[in-house]
Amino acid sequence: MYHLQLKLAALLAWAAAVACEGVVAPVPEARGPGDCPPGGVNYAQLAAKLSKAAQIYQPGSSAFNAAVARWSNLSIPVANVVVVPSTENDIVQTVKFANQNSLPFLTTNGVHGSITTLGAMTHGIEILMSQLNRIAIASDGKTATIGGGVMSKNLTDALWAAGKQTVTGTCECVSYLGPGLGGGHGWLQGRYGLISDQFVSMNVVLANGSLITIDQNSRLSWAMKGAGHNFGIVTSTTSKIYDIQHPNYAMATLIFSGDQVEAVYRVANEQWHSTGKTMPVNLINWSYWFFDPTIDPQKPVIAMYLIQEGVSAVDAAYTQPFLDLGPIINQAVSGTYRDLAAWTGISLDAPPCQKTGNANPRFPIYLKSYNTTAQRLVYNLFAQATTNASTPFSNALFMFEGYPQQGVKAISDDATAFAYRADNLLVAPLLSYKPTGPALDEVAFKLGKQMRQILYEGSGQTSLNTYVNYAYGDETPLAWYGSDAWRQTRLHALKGDFDPTGKFSFYGPIA
Ligand SMILES: Cc1cc2nc3c(=O)[nH]c(=O)nc-3n(C[C@H](O)[C@H](O)[C@H](O)COP(=O)(O)OP(=O)(O)OC[C@H]3O[C@@H](n4cnc5c(N)ncnc54)[C@H](O)[C@@H]3O)c2cc1C
């Protein structure tokens, strides 16, 4: 067991050995055996203030290496030490300690955050939330209090066992709060709204180390629902939960040749995204583009997923217009809500839940409907980039996520910091590649931007509407949080009041 659990008995010996750990990273030449450079940090002082179950992982330990490994290996945050709190007070103490020692700190959870702004953290403390994983359902069955380190799948499973559910991210290995703080899309959003729309109250450790409870009447509540990464560490949230109404689901997978891009998305528009139309509340339509030479050795395919709630087979009314186009593959499955992640390739054992060392940048844009001309242009670019003989991007995935929006649009546009309730489709190329250095990173960046630009120009929109939780990191705060002046003014005012020195400014910083 390499975990260094700091206990009083070991404290003195350990303190001598690690008194210099966590020194300001950019001065390695100042370091040597037994040599404490200016700014050396004595983590033993922090350890003495933490609870018995809290842990501090040092560099060089396997626990440290496992904790700092991330899903996307591009512009990653760098830490000198990882603190694993087990109580709210551990977080309070860690933040105060970091402040006293002028150390940056970053909350980490499911480590699927991939925005490149995280790379601005070049040293300091990572606060890994994994031990704050309690889930407690209230006696009235209407809310659950969810620890700040709970994973999406754990929440789904715990609620399911009690006949309950709530909106979580779809991927089993992302945390509950990581997606939620940026808004949070999930299978149930058509019924109940975004993940963040479920927040009733929260315990939050602020930048100065104070622990507060906020509810719907708190000024900060608005910001935590869409721009929450900028304001504090959420130790727990109390969120709305619901009786399971429709446990069963069915999915139709229809795989098309890339030749049919225009036809496929024309049908999607005709069914759900043209004037007066909307996604039915019980239907989700995702599609992926990917190159699978076993299906088509020449070019990427289009996989359409029609996921319907409460049925054992997807209604023909939804599938037939696509079947009329003649898919290469037509498959159907049925099961329950808990099968959805496996069906769509985002369950715990699926590739997106593994840390492979790959860089995984995405270039997201929200759209209202598909522009079939733009779809063709961007498909051609994607095909060229994924199929040429020497490409590093053969595993790239283009994602088109069409969730039902009723629950999202039922909440007024200005009610929370999430700015994009009016949009219908979350679209992003995911340019997964094995990193080899800045030159390839630059190729990926240019390619991703070019793809997004095609979609942006085809959308007719006047602002780049970007989901902060998928963002590459080159976008502006206007793109992440909305270009309306009032949104920016309100966010800046809150930032000034709650985090004036920008302690929480690594993930999609407001300023
Ligand atoms: C495979 C995959 C599937 C995804 N599916 C969805 C989806 O269905 N819906 C959706 O909306 N998004 C989804 N996302 C995007 C997801 O919202 C972001 O990647 C998110 O940042 C992941 O959170 P995390 O805790 O896993 O990652 P982390 O990197 O650990 O956290 C990201 C950031 O969240 C903040 N944070 C996390 N926990 C806390 C906390 N307790 N208190 C304060 N700040 C905190 C920190 O700023 C941190 O830097 C998906 C991403 C991937 C890679």
Automatic annotation (TrEMBL):
PROSITE patterns: FAD_PCMH, PROKAR_LIPOPROTEIN. Its cofactor is FAD. Residues 75-244 form the FAD-binding PCMH-type domain. Keywords: FAD, Flavoprotein, Oxidoreductase, Signal. It comes from the Eukaryota. GO terms for molecular function: FAD binding; oxidoreductase activity. Pfam families: FAD_binding_4. Belongs to the oxygen-dependent FAD-linked oxidoreductase family. This is Putative FAD-dependent oxygenase. It comes from Venustampulla echinocandica.
